[in-house]
Amino acid sequence: MRDRKKVLASRRISWFDKRTLIKQIMECASTMVDRLYTPDSSTKLRLPLYMQPVSAGFPSPAEDYIEGKLDLNRYLVKHPAATFFVRVVGDSMIDAGIHPKDMLIVDRAILPTNGKIVIAVVNGELTVKRLRQVKEKLWLMPDNSNYQPLQISAEMDFLIWGVVTTVIHFV
Predict the structure, then answer these.
(1) Which of 92, 137, 145, 153 is labelled catalytic?
(2) Is 129 considered catalytic here?
(3) pLDDT digits over 39-62, tens only?
């Protein structure tokens, strides 16, 4: 059984090497996934989309022109069959704008590449980290200097579930 795990792990590492991926998971506490959700594409809620951008500086005159209706499912979910949502626990990705209790939209149809934020399974634990490749090593990187990167080794049970496409953060 242990030999089989090593072979599977080496195949996963090779798959990432071919696509120039590398990353590490934090050694200490990290940002983890609390719950998984799937999109409900049967819901249709079309909200007004104003053509006039909102000024973050000086106020601009109000515009009564609505460009159209916006369906957030269509806007945020590009591949419904390959998309899921996760709620975040922890603060290892806070410098990337990912905070505890945020909701992440994750797309499994997108190829995980160097620098992308991914949902990974490491030794049975779901985590969110930035994927990094350095030479021939794969790392999962936290975006918080209080945490250490984790190098992925052949002995680890490692799998990338998908690429984070959107962070939903309530203010």
Answers:
(1) 92
(2) yes
(3) 677 777 665 555 556 566 665 554
Q: Residue 102 domain-assigned?
A: yes
Answer yes or no: pTM beyond 0.85.
no
Q: Choose the catalytic residue: 6, 129, 135, 153.
A: 129
Active site residue 41: no
Does residue 83 belong to any structural domain of this protein? yes
Asked whether 106 and 165 are in contact (CB, 8 A), the reply is yes
CATH of residue 119's domain is 2.10.109.10
For residue 65, being part of any structural domain is answered with no
Domain hosting 79: range is: 2-41+70-168
Return d(Cα 77, Cα 95) in angstroms, integer: 24
At 124, list the tokens. 């049975």
Q: Where are the alpha helices (DSSP H) in the chain?
A: 2-18, 72-76
